[in-house]
Structure formats: C-alpha cells, structure tokens
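4.2 Preliminary Data

To establish feasibility before requesting continued support, the project team ran the inverse folding procedure on a target of 580 residues. The structure was first converted into the token representation described in Section 3, and no sequence information of any kind was made available to the design step. The complete token record follows.
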C-alpha cells in the first residue's frame, strides 16, 4: 500500500444515519471553488425529507466543526456552510499538507452533528481527535509549507498535488517530487516566473472561446497551450486526449517547460469537485449560464450554477480582469456579488452594462455596425468586421460573435498586439482542425452538412437559430441524448432541436451514454416528442449508433439539402465518413 492509499484508508468514521438524510463522501478542496478560495474538505448533506431543518444543521456544524478544528490545533482555520434546497454543503479549511486529515476532521465534525441532530450517542471526542492527529503526523510535509511561504515571498506561483510540486509556470517552472523538495535557499528563484493565464467557463461556448484565445496568442508568436474537455495541448502538440477541464489538466499544462501563455477551459465539475488550481490568472471569462447538469453537489438552479461558474473570479491576480457577457441575465445578476474588475461584452452597444462602463471609463467590447469594437476606457477602437471572423458565419452565428468579443477582451487583458488579435480572429475557422465538433461544415453530394456537439437546450437553440437562416430543399437532423437527463429534459431538448424545422429526424442510441437507462428508451422518448410536435412517423428514422445514423442521412442527401448532425459520440468516425 503506497503512502496516499494508506492516508486515504487511515480511518473509518461512522456517523448516525437516518432514511431522510443522505451524506456524500467527503472530498478534498485544493483551490478556489463555489464556497471560497481555501483548501480543505467539504461534505454534501442531502435531505430526503423537507422537514429537516438546514439552518439547524448549519448551526450544529458551526459548533462542532469549530470544536474539532480547535482541538486539532487549527485555530486559524475557517469553516463554512452553504444551504440549498434539499441540503447543505459543510466545509472546513486546512493546511495544504493536511488535506487527507481534513477529510477525517470534516467527517468527525459531521459525526457529532449527526448525533446531536438525530438524538443518538456520539463516540469519545478525545479519542477521535487523537486518531486524526496520528494521521496528521503521517501526512505532514513541513518542507512543503516552508516552500509555499518562500514562493509567496518571491511572488511566484506554486502548484501542488499528491505526487509533485512545481514552482512557476511553463518556461519559468520546475517540478520536484513531493517527498524530495528543496530548501528555499536551494531554489534558483530568478529562473522561476508565472505566465499569463486565462480561465474560461460558462455553460456553452467555453471550448470555442478557449481555442480562439489560444489562436490569438499563437498569432502573437507565443507558445500557447490550452486545456479543454477534449484534450491538453502546447503549441501544435497534443499532450493527452480526454476531459481535462479540471485542475489536473491545468497542472499538466502549466508544468510544460515550453509554455508561454495558458488558456484553461474550466467546467462545472472541476470547480465543484476540487476547485481551481491557481489564484494568479490575468483574466477570467464567463460566457453564459444556462440550465445544464443541475442537481449535483447542491447546485439545483441556474442562479446557483452561476455562483459556481463565477468561482473563476477567485482565481484572479490583484490586477486581473473578469470578462462577462452582459447579454446573459444570469451573468448580470451574479456580477453583483463580485468585486473584481469587470469588462463587459455585448451584441448591443446600447446594453446597460456597456453604456455604464463607457460612462465610467471602464473597458468593454461590443458589436456595432457589424464590427467588433473595443472601448479602452478612453476611446472607441473598431477592431474587425464580423465578415472577417469565420466562426461568426457572416454574422449568422450570434453566439460566436459573443465568443469572439470575449476572446478579443482576453487578448487585450493579456497585452497582446492588435494585429495578433485580428489575425487570430480572422484565421480561426469553424472546421474539424481548428474547432472540432463546433459547427463544422462539410459538402456531400451537393448538400451542406454541419456537425456540432450541442447537447443542451441553450446550445441547441443557438445552433438551430444559426442554421434556420440557411436555405435548403430538405432538412435532416440527427438527435441523441445522454441517459442521465430526465424524461422532461429529453422532451425539452428534442423540442428545441425541432426549431431547425427538419423534414427528417434520425434518432440514435449511444451505448456509452445510457447512464442507467435501457437500450431503446431514449429513442422512444424522442419519438414521442417528435410525433407530438406534428411530424409523421415517415419523417422519423432510427439507428443504433451515431456513425450509422450519420451514414443513413448521408446516403439520402441530394444537392441543395441541409443536414445538422448533433453528434455526442463517435465524432471522429463521423468525420471520417465525411472525409471519405
């Protein structure tokens, strides 16, 4: 058993249970997240009975978590609770070298909360504290704490995980094993520095915006890297494929010795599970907030999702900039809860947030007379026509105009030259090379075929709005849904897709996305929605996989037809069909 596994399994803490209360496993928080910007541990408590008093639970946590922290000698550590409909998040902070111990501390605090809440006997407090202190001794890494303090004194970032520690970023970084750390006087501090970092999040558009920002940085001659839900790359090299939108992907990128600028896509899951990896970002972006993946970690509503997305403001350096979409009501509402410097973007130059920014000499960006415009706080600067930005599809893809405005602001915040910003915006194309899976166009048998990863009502509505303006003799659409969505959500997403006004709908099964459902269940739900919307059974076709569904559509396409393939899986296989 290695050291980490031994720490994870060092203690088993059992608490009083009740049918109306469900407790998720405690998890480590390594950086800024939904609740705060501190490392530590959090436990999610869910109530199956509406009569459970969440206020009482929070008060019990205030009492017992404080007692546990003080008894462990962590008098300087903090605690917090966040109430939501149906439960409460309970958190404590802890030293960065004591995060496994913090889990046991949180579980111990909950043990006493549960006993008091349910009127059941509790274990011996002193014995439980002694057990945790035993783990703390094994986990302690004084050399790490000393090195973190030294890095702070030298004004350089330090990134930590279970195996490695690194000082600085990219070309200014060096990595050591966590059990072989140097003393501060053994570090060549003059060779270590941070690189400009952008965090990009939102419900939709974050991958495109991240890629677009990277294109601008490369146009400026920088070795740019990105993390995303698809892969991690530096320059032209893909380091690894997979969902790297969490802190692990960020550390992989920021430790690459070639890196000069980092653009990090941040997804909801990474924020909520572990937190964000650094507090030294030059700029952060929230593209939008919409209904998607609700019901996890106590995030049940769109405003609560906005709170989670806005965790990126906690990553900003003291002179950092938060770029926000002022055309999104949820983003505008949540902006009241941050004191970060905000640069607004809008498709409307008369948007209230934009007008207020201009009146107060605050930079912002907006669309005016079909041109992307940047206001630097003093004067207006026309940057580039939307007709010269390929991802806007001559202005039809309004959501990509918003993404381009956000990327423009990122380039400005990173002090990249204007010609690089224009070059990045004008050369980044909506194809499978530059932006795979995002409105990629192909020609087939004289028809136009578009592939997009859109999978929630917000993104599907945006894509269908863009496609609705394109002429077509016949329209085909490929639909599939992940099984972890409710019947109502699958109905709603299907109805949104029908805004494309298809002549034929091909629904398909995705075995890897069933997530608890039976084979055939999702196509039946799609069929009910499609038939209920007035299409006939002759207009509805079925397939057993996205690749076969795409083949079915391609075989029927004729000159002048239009096909929209909403491909959630087997995207590379569908690309190969079209390339062939």
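Position-by-position output of the design step:
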């Amino acid at each position: 058993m290695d050291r980490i596994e031994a720490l994870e399994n060092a203690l088993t803490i059992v608490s009083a249970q009740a049918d109306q209360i469900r407790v998720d496993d405690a998890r480590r928080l390594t950086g800024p997240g939904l609740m705060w910007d501190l490392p530590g541990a959090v436990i999610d408590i869910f109530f199956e009975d509406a009569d459970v008093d969440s206020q009482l639970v929070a008060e019990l946590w205030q009492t017992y978590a404080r007692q546990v922290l003080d008894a462990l000698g962590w008098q300087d550590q903090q605690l917090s609770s966040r109430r939501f409909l149906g439960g409460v998040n309970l958190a404590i902070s802890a030293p960065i070298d004591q995060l496994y111990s913090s889990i046991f501390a949180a579980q111990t605090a909950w043990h006493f909360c549960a006993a008091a809440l349910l009127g059941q006997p509790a274990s011996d407090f002193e014995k439980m504290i002694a057990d945790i202190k035993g783990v703390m001794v094994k986990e302690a890494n004084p050399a790490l704490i000393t090195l973190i303090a030294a890095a702070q004194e030298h004004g350089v970032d330090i990134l930590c995980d279970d195996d490695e520690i690194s000082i600085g970023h990219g070309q200014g970084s060096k990595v050591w094993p966590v059990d072989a750390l140097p003393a501060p006087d053994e570090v060549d501090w003059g060779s270590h520095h941070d690189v400009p970092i952008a965090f990009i999040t939102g419900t939709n558009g974050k991958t495109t915006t991240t890629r677009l920002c990277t294109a601008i940085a490369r146009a400026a001659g920088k070795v740019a890297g990105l993390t995303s839900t698809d892969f991690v790359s530096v320059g032209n090299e893909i380091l690894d494929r997979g969902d790297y939108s969490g802190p692990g992907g960020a550390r992989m990128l920021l430790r690459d010795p070639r890196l000069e600028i980092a653009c990090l896509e941040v997804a909801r899951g990474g924020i909520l599970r572990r937190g964000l990896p650094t507090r030294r970002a030059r700029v952060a972006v929230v593209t939008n907030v919409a209904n998607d993946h609700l019901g996890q970690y106590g995030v049940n509503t769109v405003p609560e999702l906005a709170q989670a997305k806005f965790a990126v403001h906690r990553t900003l350096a003291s002179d950092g900039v938060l770029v926000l979409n002022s055309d999104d009501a949820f983003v505008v509402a949540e902006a009241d809860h941050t004191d970060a410097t905000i640069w607004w973007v809008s498709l409307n130059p008369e948007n209230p947030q934009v007008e207020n920014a201009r009146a107060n000499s605050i930079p912002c960006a907006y669309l005016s007379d079909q041109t992307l415009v940047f206001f630097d706080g003093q004067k207006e600067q026309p940057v580039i026509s939307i007709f010269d930005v390929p991802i806007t599809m001559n202005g039809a893809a309004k959501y990509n105009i918003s993404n381009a405005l956000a990327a423009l602001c990122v380039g400005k915040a990173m002090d990249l030259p204007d010609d690089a910003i224009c070059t990045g915006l004008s050369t980044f194309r909506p194809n499978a090379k530059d932006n795979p899976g995002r409105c990629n166009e192909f020609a087939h048998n004289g028809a136009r075929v578009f592939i997009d990863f859109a999978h929630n009502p917000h993104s599907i509505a945006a894509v269908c709005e863009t496609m609705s303006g394109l002429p077509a003799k016949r329209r085909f659409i490929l639909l599939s849904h992940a099984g972890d969505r409710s019947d109502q959500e699958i109905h709603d997403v299907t109805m949104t897709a029908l805004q494309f006004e298809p002549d034929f709908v091909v629904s398909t099964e995705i075995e890897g996305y069933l997530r608890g459902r039976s084979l055939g269940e999702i196509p039946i739900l799609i069929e009910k929605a499609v038939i209920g919307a007035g299409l006939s059974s002759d207009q509805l076709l079925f397939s057993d996989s996205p690749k076969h569904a795409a083949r079915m559509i391609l075989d029927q396409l004729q000159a002048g037809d239009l096909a929209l393939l909403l491909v959630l899986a087997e995207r590379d296989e569908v690309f190969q069909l079209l390339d062939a």
